[in-house]
Design goal:
By secondary structure, this protein is of the alpha/beta class. The chain has helices at 2-20, 33-43, 50-58, 64-80, 92-102, 117-121, 135-144, 160-171, and strands at residues 84-88, 107-110, 125-129, 150-154, 178-180, 184-188, 197-199. It contains eight helices and seven strands. Strands 2-1-3-4-6-5-7 form a seven-stranded mixed beta sheet, sandwiched between helices. α7 (135-144) links the parallel β3 (125-129) and β4 (150-154). α4 runs parallel beside α5 (92-102).
Protein backbone atom coordinates (compact mmCIF):
# COMPACT_ATOMS: atom_id res chain seq x y z
CA UNK A 1 0.00 0.00 0.00
CA UNK A 2 2.81 2.42 0.93
CA UNK A 3 4.71 1.65 -2.29
CA UNK A 4 1.55 2.14 -4.34
CA UNK A 5 0.88 5.53 -2.74
CA UNK A 6 4.51 6.56 -3.17
CA UNK A 7 4.39 5.60 -6.84
CA UNK A 8 1.13 7.49 -7.33
CA UNK A 9 2.56 10.63 -5.73
CA UNK A 10 5.67 10.34 -7.89
CA UNK A 11 3.74 10.09 -11.15
CA UNK A 12 1.37 12.90 -10.15
CA UNK A 13 4.30 15.20 -9.42
CA UNK A 14 6.08 14.15 -12.63
CA UNK A 15 2.94 14.91 -14.65
CA UNK A 16 2.63 18.38 -13.14
CA UNK A 17 6.30 19.19 -13.78
CA UNK A 18 6.05 17.83 -17.34
CA UNK A 19 3.03 19.98 -18.14
CA UNK A 20 4.66 23.13 -16.75
CA UNK A 21 7.80 22.46 -18.80
CA UNK A 22 6.18 21.11 -21.94
CA UNK A 23 7.49 23.98 -24.09
CA UNK A 24 11.05 23.10 -23.02
CA UNK A 25 11.00 19.59 -24.47
CA UNK A 26 13.33 18.08 -27.09
CA UNK A 27 15.75 21.00 -27.06
CA UNK A 28 13.10 23.53 -28.15
CA UNK A 29 14.37 27.10 -27.92
CA UNK A 30 18.04 26.19 -27.33
CA UNK A 31 20.13 28.19 -29.79
CA UNK A 32 23.58 27.03 -28.69
CA UNK A 33 24.72 23.88 -30.61
CA UNK A 34 26.73 22.60 -27.64
CA UNK A 35 23.86 23.12 -25.18
CA UNK A 36 21.45 21.47 -27.61
CA UNK A 37 23.74 18.44 -27.95
CA UNK A 38 24.11 18.16 -24.18
CA UNK A 39 20.33 18.18 -23.78
CA UNK A 40 19.53 15.72 -26.57
CA UNK A 41 22.54 13.39 -26.29
CA UNK A 42 23.07 13.35 -22.51
CA UNK A 43 20.25 14.80 -20.41
CA UNK A 44 17.37 13.41 -22.43
CA UNK A 45 19.10 10.59 -24.29
CA UNK A 46 16.85 7.53 -24.40
CA UNK A 47 19.31 4.93 -25.67
CA UNK A 48 18.84 1.51 -24.01
CA UNK A 49 22.34 1.37 -22.51
CA UNK A 50 23.30 -2.22 -21.74
CA UNK A 51 24.36 -1.30 -18.18
CA UNK A 52 20.89 -0.11 -17.15
CA UNK A 53 19.34 -3.55 -16.73
CA UNK A 54 22.13 -4.97 -14.55
CA UNK A 55 22.31 -1.84 -12.42
CA UNK A 56 18.57 -1.76 -11.86
CA UNK A 57 18.68 -5.36 -10.64
CA UNK A 58 21.38 -4.38 -8.15
CA UNK A 59 19.21 -1.58 -6.74
CA UNK A 60 15.68 -2.98 -6.92
CA UNK A 61 14.46 -1.17 -3.82
CA UNK A 62 15.60 2.32 -4.77
CA UNK A 63 12.95 4.93 -5.54
CA UNK A 64 12.23 6.10 -9.09
CA UNK A 65 13.80 9.54 -8.71
CA UNK A 66 17.08 8.15 -7.36
CA UNK A 67 17.34 5.74 -10.30
CA UNK A 68 16.40 8.48 -12.77
CA UNK A 69 19.20 10.70 -11.47
CA UNK A 70 21.61 7.75 -11.32
CA UNK A 71 21.00 7.04 -15.01
CA UNK A 72 21.63 10.72 -15.77
CA UNK A 73 24.96 10.58 -13.93
CA UNK A 74 25.83 7.41 -15.87
CA UNK A 75 25.23 9.29 -19.15
CA UNK A 76 27.25 12.30 -17.97
CA UNK A 77 30.14 10.05 -16.93
CA UNK A 78 29.93 8.20 -20.23
CA UNK A 79 29.88 11.43 -22.27
CA UNK A 80 32.49 13.46 -20.38
CA UNK A 81 34.80 10.71 -19.06
CA UNK A 82 35.51 13.06 -16.14
CA UNK A 83 38.09 11.32 -13.97
CA UNK A 84 37.54 12.73 -10.47
CA UNK A 85 34.04 12.82 -8.96
CA UNK A 86 33.03 14.02 -5.49
CA UNK A 87 29.73 12.71 -4.14
CA UNK A 88 27.94 14.42 -1.28
CA UNK A 89 24.38 13.06 -1.35
CA UNK A 90 22.16 10.58 0.47
CA UNK A 91 22.63 8.01 -2.33
CA UNK A 92 26.40 7.94 -2.83
CA UNK A 93 26.52 4.14 -3.16
CA UNK A 94 23.91 4.03 -5.92
CA UNK A 95 25.36 6.96 -7.84
CA UNK A 96 28.89 5.61 -7.59
CA UNK A 97 27.85 2.29 -9.15
CA UNK A 98 26.18 4.03 -12.09
CA UNK A 99 29.04 6.50 -12.61
CA UNK A 100 31.64 3.71 -12.54
CA UNK A 101 29.62 1.85 -15.18
CA UNK A 102 29.78 4.94 -17.39
CA UNK A 103 33.46 5.72 -16.84
CA UNK A 104 35.68 3.03 -15.39
CA UNK A 105 38.61 5.33 -14.55
CA UNK A 106 36.79 7.50 -11.99
CA UNK A 107 38.40 8.50 -8.69
CA UNK A 108 35.81 9.18 -6.00
CA UNK A 109 35.88 11.55 -3.06
CA UNK A 110 33.38 11.17 -0.25
CA UNK A 111 32.07 14.68 0.21
CA UNK A 112 30.45 13.76 3.52
CA UNK A 113 33.89 13.62 5.14
CA UNK A 114 34.83 17.09 6.41
CA UNK A 115 38.52 16.32 6.02
CA UNK A 116 37.99 15.81 2.29
CA UNK A 117 37.02 19.44 1.57
CA UNK A 118 40.26 20.15 -0.29
CA UNK A 119 39.85 17.04 -2.45
CA UNK A 120 36.24 17.98 -3.21
CA UNK A 121 37.34 21.41 -4.40
CA UNK A 122 39.93 19.77 -6.68
CA UNK A 123 37.42 17.37 -8.25
CA UNK A 124 36.17 17.65 -11.82
CA UNK A 125 32.54 16.95 -10.90
CA UNK A 126 30.71 17.55 -7.63
CA UNK A 127 27.28 16.04 -7.02
CA UNK A 128 25.69 17.53 -3.91
CA UNK A 129 22.47 18.84 -2.39
CA UNK A 130 21.24 22.26 -1.30
CA UNK A 131 21.26 21.39 2.40
CA UNK A 132 22.83 23.82 4.89
CA UNK A 133 25.74 21.59 5.91
CA UNK A 134 26.80 21.16 2.26
CA UNK A 135 26.66 24.76 1.08
CA UNK A 136 30.25 25.49 2.17
CA UNK A 137 31.44 22.55 0.07
CA UNK A 138 29.54 23.89 -2.91
CA UNK A 139 31.09 27.34 -2.43
CA UNK A 140 34.58 25.85 -2.18
CA UNK A 141 34.08 23.89 -5.41
CA UNK A 142 32.83 26.96 -7.30
CA UNK A 143 35.85 28.98 -6.17
CA UNK A 144 38.25 26.30 -7.44
CA UNK A 145 36.41 25.30 -10.63
CA UNK A 146 38.19 25.13 -13.99
CA UNK A 147 36.83 25.17 -17.55
CA UNK A 148 36.00 21.42 -17.49
CA UNK A 149 34.40 21.43 -14.04
CA UNK A 150 30.77 20.52 -13.52
CA UNK A 151 28.58 21.12 -10.49
CA UNK A 152 25.40 19.06 -10.08
CA UNK A 153 23.06 20.19 -7.32
CA UNK A 154 20.02 18.14 -6.33
CA UNK A 155 16.85 19.52 -4.77
CA UNK A 156 17.01 22.99 -6.31
CA UNK A 157 13.25 23.41 -5.74
CA UNK A 158 13.05 21.54 -2.43
CA UNK A 159 12.50 24.71 -0.37
CA UNK A 160 12.51 28.50 -0.59
CA UNK A 161 16.11 28.55 0.60
CA UNK A 162 17.11 25.97 -2.02
CA UNK A 163 15.48 28.01 -4.78
CA UNK A 164 17.23 31.15 -3.54
CA UNK A 165 20.61 29.39 -3.45
CA UNK A 166 20.09 27.99 -6.96
CA UNK A 167 19.37 31.51 -8.20
CA UNK A 168 22.52 32.78 -6.48
CA UNK A 169 24.59 30.05 -8.17
CA UNK A 170 23.16 30.74 -11.61
CA UNK A 171 23.82 34.49 -11.29
CA UNK A 172 27.28 34.11 -9.75
CA UNK A 173 29.95 35.67 -11.97
CA UNK A 174 32.11 32.57 -11.41
CA UNK A 175 29.59 30.24 -13.07
CA UNK A 176 28.77 29.79 -16.75
CA UNK A 177 26.09 27.89 -18.65
CA UNK A 178 23.53 26.21 -16.39
CA UNK A 179 20.72 23.69 -16.91
CA UNK A 180 17.61 23.62 -14.71
CA UNK A 181 16.19 20.07 -14.75
CA UNK A 182 13.87 20.71 -11.78
CA UNK A 183 15.12 17.60 -9.93
CA UNK A 184 18.66 18.94 -10.14
CA UNK A 185 20.67 21.77 -11.61
CA UNK A 186 23.85 21.43 -13.66
CA UNK A 187 26.41 24.23 -13.77
CA UNK A 188 29.40 24.57 -16.11
CA UNK A 189 32.41 26.86 -15.84
CA UNK A 190 33.57 27.21 -19.45
CA UNK A 191 33.65 30.98 -19.93
CA UNK A 192 34.12 30.69 -23.70
CA UNK A 193 30.38 29.89 -23.82
CA UNK A 194 27.85 32.68 -23.30
CA UNK A 195 26.33 32.56 -19.82
CA UNK A 196 22.81 31.22 -20.09
CA UNK A 197 20.26 29.30 -18.03
CA UNK A 198 18.37 26.59 -19.91
CA UNK A 199 15.09 25.23 -18.53
CA UNK A 200 14.86 21.54 -19.47
CA UNK A 201 11.90 19.18 -19.39
CA UNK A 202 13.74 16.18 -17.91
Amino acid sequence: MVNWLSSLRYWFKRSMVFMRRFTHSRGFGIQSPSAYRFDREVINAHHPYHAYADLQLAFLHEDRLTLKLARLYFRIANATQARRWALCTHRNDVYRAYIEAGCSTDIFVDGDEESELGKVAASDVLVTTMEDDRWQMCESFVSSAHERSMLIVEGIYASKKAKMRWKVLVNDERTGVAFDLYDCGIVFFDYTKSKQLYIINF
